[in-house]
Specification:
The complex is a heterodimer.
Chain A: H1 3-24, H2 28-49, H3 56-84, H4 96-116, H5 128-145, H6 149-170, H7 176-204
Helix pairs in contact in A: 1-2, 1-5, 2-3, 2-6, 3-7, 4-5, 5-6, 6-7
Chain B: H1 7-15, H2 18-31, H3 40-50, H4 61-78, H5 95-116, H6 120-151, H7 156-161, H8 165-189, H9 208-211, H10 217-242, H11 249-273, H12 282-301
Helix pairs in contact in B: 2-11, 3-10, 4-5, 4-10, 5-6, 6-8, 6-12, 8-10, 8-12, 10-11
Classes of the chains: A mainly alpha, B mainly alpha.
Chain lengths: 217, 302
């Protein structure tokens, strides 16, 4: 095992740990920070995935990812959080302990799933695909199991991170344009959701999604 | 039997109480106090051993047996733990499990002793102790299973002697994960800060201290000494997972002992910078330890 693969593995394990932290932490603000950390790790991963010297495209892309996911998103989300005056608890449907017990099991399933797939050449680490699935599942789980609308934005971001890791595992040199397009989408989504949540909060004085059921005609 | 195998148990028996002194001095330093002397726990033990014990009329022989069994168990556990490249006195396949459950036996007798007093207060402490240990045990065993799989050894001597530099460059993350998990277990098992507050007495929040409220004299001395040895042994395991060996016995042993002391300083830092968690939140941090251990095992098995 080369030093580079080991480094990729370490970053990927850190991504798994951020997922654990997201599932286990009760504070919205900490969740936002952890998501930011995950974004930064993905930016680093983008450079590490490349064999040999990174191209200028790759460095720019990685810088864009770190900027957007590590700085701008958290900034927007924390500002929304401040404007909302929401309670800082995440308010889960599924408890933190249960989530933490379930997540390693889900990881096992993801690793099995990853081993079933016949991925094309060029995958740097055998952990990449399973972790991509795991991150996607965590994102979905966050969307489904947490009450606050802001956590759903976070879940969406984590989901997107997972898709990004999966993309990175398939093609080491992705078209930069596609990647930038996805980033732009995510950016707009976070921006719009931030505004939307703000307005929801102003109209209904809460952002609990389970109580939004009332809106159905 | 080689004579050098005696070194580790001797070091453990002699130096273990010093750990409390180091932790207390670190905390004093953070709080800006001078703190108690480094050797204070030795003075305390000496004082306790010279005193007679007072036994309540409600207690039975179990109460007198508990502290002795506790001390006997940890002293036998010293025979199982290798350190600094030196093998343990006794090593066989599966001694990991014996090691883990020797502490289980000690806990069982501490709990029995606490229940035997008939005090509702001590019963509460016993219930908490059992609840938390039910969560630390899987974390500890699963973490050690990961290390065991990685080093292809079922004995503590093989598992902890294998932490050389080659292994580090090979599969570092697993060791880090297990080490972090074992550190949380270490804090919980030794009733240190985020789980239990060793400073408070007669508080509703504490766990270990509350169980030994009725013990006095030499019995209390046994319990304190056993707690110190337990702490030393668990830190030796933690150090064995992390610290590589270089082959020279003297350097290795002094590195291991120094690392144990550094760990004690670290515990002091944790205690000075963190508050005790709410009892309801303690299982959460233990779940984290479990998740990390399981992750390490998954990574090794993959």
């Amino acid at each position: 095992m080369s030093f580079m693969t080991n480094l990729v593995d370490t970053v990927i394990i850190l991504v798994i740990l951020t997922n654990f932290m997201l599932l286990g932490s009760s504070r919205l603000r900490r969740c936002i920070r952890v998501t930011a950390l995950q974004g930064i790790l993905l930016g680093i991963l983008a450079i590490l995935m490349e064999d040999g010297t990174p191209t200028i495209h790759l460095i720019l892309l990685s810088a864009a990812i770190i900027c957007l996911k590590g700085i701008i998103f958290p900034f927007l989300l924390i500002r929304t959080l401040r404007d909302l005056n929401v309670q800082y608890e995440v308010e889960p449907f599924v408890g933190y302990g249960t989530s933490l017990v379930l997540s390693p099991l889900v990881l096992v399933v993801c690793i099995w799933l990853g081993s079933q797939l016949s991925l094309p050449m060029g995958v740097t680490s055998s952990l990449v695909a399973p972790v991509a699935f795991f991150t996607i599942t965590c994102g979905l789980f966050l969307i489904v199991s947490r009450k606050k609308a802001l956590t759903q934005v976070l879940g969406y971001l984590v989901l997107e991170n997972g898709i990004y890791v999966f993309g990175a595992s398939i093609a080491t040199i992705q078209p930069v344009l596609v990647e930038l397009g996805i980033l732009l989408d995510a950016f707009v989504a976070v921006f719009v959701m931030g505004i939307a949540i703000y307005h929801i909060n102003r109209e209904f004085e809460h952002t609990d999604v389970d109580r939004l059921n009332r809106l159905k005609g | 039997m080689h004579i050098e195998k005696i070194i580790n148990p001797l070091l453990t028996l002699v130096l273990a109480p010093l750990l409390f002194g180091i932790i207390n001095r670190t905390k004093a330093l953070f709080a800006g106090r001078t703190g108690q002397p480094l050797l204070q726990s030795y003075y305390d033990l000496w004082k306790l051993f010279r005193k007679g014990a007072v036994y309540s009329k409600t207690t039975s022989w179990v109460f007198r047996l508990g502290p002795i069994v506790g001390l006997a168990v940890v002293i036998s556990a010293t025979a199982l733990v290798p350190s600094g490249g030196l093998p343990a006195i006794i090593a066989f396949d599966g001694d990991v499990i014996l090691f883990a459950y020797l502490f289980g036996l000690m806990r069982f007798f501490t709990v029995l002793t606490a229940l035997d007093t008939g005090s509702s207060f001590e019963g509460m402490g016993a219930s908490r102790e059992v609840m938390f240990s039910a969560l630390t045990e899987p974390a500890f065993l699963v973490g050690l299973a990961a290390i065991s799989k990685q080093t292809h050894s079922l004995s503590l001597t093989g598992m902890l002697a294998g932490a050389d530099t080659a292994l580090w460059s090979h599969i570092g993350p697993v060791q880090l994960l297990v080490a972090f998990s074992v550190f949380i277990v270490f804090l919980a098992e030794n009733s240190r800060m985020p789980v239990d507050d060793p400073n408070t007495h007669l508080e509703l929040t504490m766990i270990h201290e509350v169980m030994v409220l009725d013990n006095s004299g030499a019995d209390l001395g046994f319990i304190t000494y056993a707690a110190a040895i337990k702490m030393w042994l668990l830190s030796t395991v933690l150090v064995g997972i992390l610290v590589p060996h270089n082959g020279n016995a003297w350097i290795d042993i002094s590195t291991a002992v120094a690392a144990v002391f550094i760990l004690a300083v670290l515990v002091g830092v944790v205690e000075s910078s963190m508050a005790r968690l709410k009892l309801l939140h303690v299982p959460q941090i233990l779940f984290i330890a479990n998740a990390l251990s399981t992750l390490a095992l998954i990574l090794v098995l993959r």
